[in-house]
Every structure is written in structure tokens, then in C-alpha cells.
Amino acid sequence: MNSRPRGIAALTSSIVRASSARCGHIVATGCLTARPPSISACNMSSGSESECTHHQDRGASLRGHLQRLRSSPSETLLLDGGTGEELFLRGVPDDRKIWSATAITHVEYHSVVEDVHKSFLQAGSQAVTTNSYGITPGVGFTDGEEVQRLVGKAGEIARRAVDNSGALVLGSLGPQVESYRPDLIMDHDDGVRAYLNAIAGLHPHVDAYLAETMSCVEEACQAVDAVSRLDAPHPMMVSLTLNGSGKVRSGESVVDAIPKLAEYAKERGVECVINVPSVLTVEVALAEV
């Protein structure tokens, strides 16, 4: 391969995690604009027409940050840190089955979730991520309506924490079966349906969706496909998880995976920014170029 993927060359500014001194995410690629109409986002929430218009304007916040990041390699977007570990440190039971979702399923911990979000903002974060990563079929949340309700509560708490600070709310979409296991992902249509349940709950509250720790291109494509079903302008971020050799967990080359995923999003009219998890793994991956 003679040239780097366009996004790696074009977007060299970093998105970093507030909980660590090392760089957590580097923006790797971005793509396109319009999204074809399908499912009306307004119909997915009980909001009024004016509220729906407000929801539709939220995507502009991330677009503004991306424009700033593209303007200079020295620009950064500081994300929050590990919400789950912080919740456990603050007394939420460390349930090894549903993990941090415990703080959403038990109303007495909702205030703790909100406090964790606020603590990251006080530390300088420019975005908080909804505590919805673990609300998935893989840990037992198999009822679509329950997923929508619980994920919606996570989005509501995050939005309340941000209030009028100007910080972004990123709607977390985790692997639907198990993290880091590309061999266990759902069939495409089942995966899309599962992601749509989570997106329905998140939509009224978030500025963008964040598909986290995607272990293969197909897993990420399922999330992208689900977002493409909405008649809504929320953009999307996708975080690929890499192994020690700089490849996607599935063994796919990151320099092949990124343009493949970017093209998939482009074809479906989804605004998509693709991240990789650390400076070290980016450097290892670029060694393939």
C-alpha cells in the first residue's frame, strides 16, 4: 500500500481520555453528511415538535469540534474516563454479570452516575459518555423495550449532568454480545435490531452516538447500519479495539478496516468519525503502511 488512508493523514489531532495522562483516542477518519430518511427520530421519543428540532440541532456540537480538530494538529477533544471503574470506587456494587449497568437498573445509584459525569466535567472533560455500554443482550437485557427504557435513563442522566456547560453527550453503544470477541457477534440483521433498541433510548438525549470497542468491521457496520435507519442528523463515532500487533481484534488490518468502514458509512449517509485506542497502537498500525 503506497499511501495512508485519507482520514489518518487528514485528522491528526487527538481525542484523549480525562482519566489518563496517555492519549486515549486519535481521530482516524471522518466522512460525509446527509442521511437518507427512514425511521423518524421524532416518532421514537415523546417530545414535541420544538423538542425534536432541538434534538436535530445537537449534532452540530460535534461537527464544530471536528472542524476545530481539523484546523490544527495541536487541537484536542478531551473525553471522560472510565465511568464503570469510577462508579465501583463510589460504592456501586461490582456486579460481574451486568457490570456498570447496575447503576442504571437500581434507581438509588442514579445520583452517583450523575456525580461521576460531573466530576469528569470538573476535571476538564469536554464530553461525557452515557453509562449504557453494558445494557446489552449479551448480559441478559433481551427485551427491546427494557433496553430502550434503561438506555434512555442513562442518556437522561448524562444530559442532566451536562446541563448548560456546552459539553457533548456521547451515547455509548457497546458490543451486543461480548467485548473483544469478534467470533461471537450477532448476525447482521439481529445486530442492527439490537442497536436500534439502544439508539431509540439514546436519541432524545445525545449529541452523537459512540460505538465503543468494536472488535471487527462487521460489528461496527451493524451499529452504523442501525444509525442509518434514522431520519436524524446525529453524527457517530466508532472506536475500534486493536490487538498488540496493531490489527483489529478480528485480525483485520487497521489500514484496510478504516477505509472499508468509512465507505460503508458514506454509502448509508452516516456522518462517521473512526477512532483507534492509543498512540502506541496507531504507530504500530501505521508501520503496515
Give me a quick take on this structure.
With 289 residues, this protein is α/β, with parallel strands linked by helices. The chain contains twelve helices and ten strands. The strands form two sheets. An eight-stranded mixed beta sheet has the order 4-1-2-10-9-7-6-5. It has a two-stranded parallel ribbon with strand order 3-8.
What can you tell me about this protein's structure?
- The structure is a single chain.
- With 289 residues, this protein is of the alpha/beta class.
- Helix content is 43%, strand content 16%.
- It has twelve helices and ten strands.
- It has helices at 6-10, 41-44, 49-57, 59-71, 83-89, 102-105, 110-122, 144-162, 188-202, 217-228, 254-267, 279-286, and strands at residues 14-17, 25-31, 39-40, 76-79, 127-129, 168-173, 208-214, 230-231, 236-240, 272-276.
- The chain has an eight-stranded mixed β-sheet with strand order 4-1-2-10-9-7-6-5. A two-stranded parallel sheet has the order 3-8.
- Strand 5, helix 8 and strand 6 form a beta-alpha-beta unit.
- The longest helix has 19 residues, at 144-162.
- The radius of gyration is 18 Å and the shape is globular.
- The termini are close together.
- Mean pLDDT is 81; it is low at 1-14 and 19-54.
What descriptive keywords fit this protein?
289 residues; 43% helix; alpha/beta
